[in-house]
Amino acid sequence: MVATNTNEVQTNYDRQSELKAFDDTKDGVKGLVDAGITEVPRIFHQPPDEHFIDNTSDSEATQTQFSIPVIDLEGLALDSPTKRKEIVAKVGEASETWGFFQIANHGIPIGVLEEIKDGVRGFFEQDTEVKKELYTRDYFRPVIYNSNFDLYKAPATNWRDTFICYMAPYAKKPEDLPEVCRDILIEYSKQIMRLGKLLFELLSEALGLTPSHLNDIDCSEGLVLLCNYYPACPQPELTLGTSKHADSYFLTVLLQDHIGGLQVLHKNKWIDVPPVPGALVVNVGDLLQLISNERFKSVEHRVLANRVGPRVSVASFFTTGMLPLKKLYGPIKELVSGDNPPKYREKNCEGL
Ligand code: OGA
Ligand code: NI
């Protein structure tokens, strides 16, 4: 099929000043939608994607041929070594081939998942003047709310607003967190930290290491929450909710609502990650790819814009960024050999 680009991306305009005008509203994409716009402004227009002719989903055939594994963790509660081995094998296989999987029966109560989604929506839908006070590009602030962290650098702006909270290892003063969702941010983070420890045990075992290995090298010490709000979009084919990217940290645990739109690039095709009620999406980040010497894959993904919305998601990143020690991470010694030499040099993870 010939890719016809009917959505010519205009480049002969003063993009920087249009970005600045958008930034100065401190009201994000939601502000545009609330103002009643019916066309997507040109700063949001995506250049054509080399992997695909448009921003819609791939064909039904591809979607059914491939799907992200859903792994049921319920068996871990049985304390059965056979069941655990089975689960570890599935986690390992998914991390090697997809870099992505979903987990069911992960132990975080449905009520907590509902409450954090409501809390995030509540943040974005609170009184605009209160919310604007938190709008910033100063990444040293305890809570960073803005639209498009890379607004002035990215080739196209995403149809998405975000707030970021650094939750661990430093305990945040509760009064630094946004009031509308303070309690649930703390509760959700506690639950995600506990789940993170378990996931890093399973991933360690899948790599043939002692169960505590990845936790011992501090993979589960740092937690950043990225709370995303994707407003309904009048022309979803012109833009994206989140452009194609891979996550830079060790591991991401993503909670998405029922709307959908997340896609993973697998064998050069965009595959949907369908919402599964009560499940969480887990994906390998660049740092885990590095320390596993590429056994586990950090895979590119994106989020489509949608006529229906808002869509809410919470991405929990396990990271080193806020740790006091500036550590070096390289391929784990036990995973390299003469036949399998290190594919990366040690990397200073400061500032990640
Ligand atoms: C991210 C991300 C996906 C989503 O924040 O890195 O990929 O569904 N988010 O919001
Ligand atoms: Ni991501």
From TrEMBL:
The keyword Hydrolase does not apply. Its cofactor is Fe cation. InterPro entries: DIOX_N, IPNS-like_FE2OG_OXY, IPNS-like_sf, Oxoglu/Fe-dep_dioxygenase_dom. Pfam families: 2OG-FeII_Oxy, DIOX_N. It comes from the Eukaryota. Keywords: Iron, Metal-binding, Oxidoreductase. Residues 221-321 form the Fe2OG dioxygenase domain. One of its GO terms (molecular function) is dioxygenase activity. Belongs to the iron/ascorbate-dependent oxidoreductase family. This is Fe2OG dioxygenase domain-containing protein. It comes from Prunus persica.
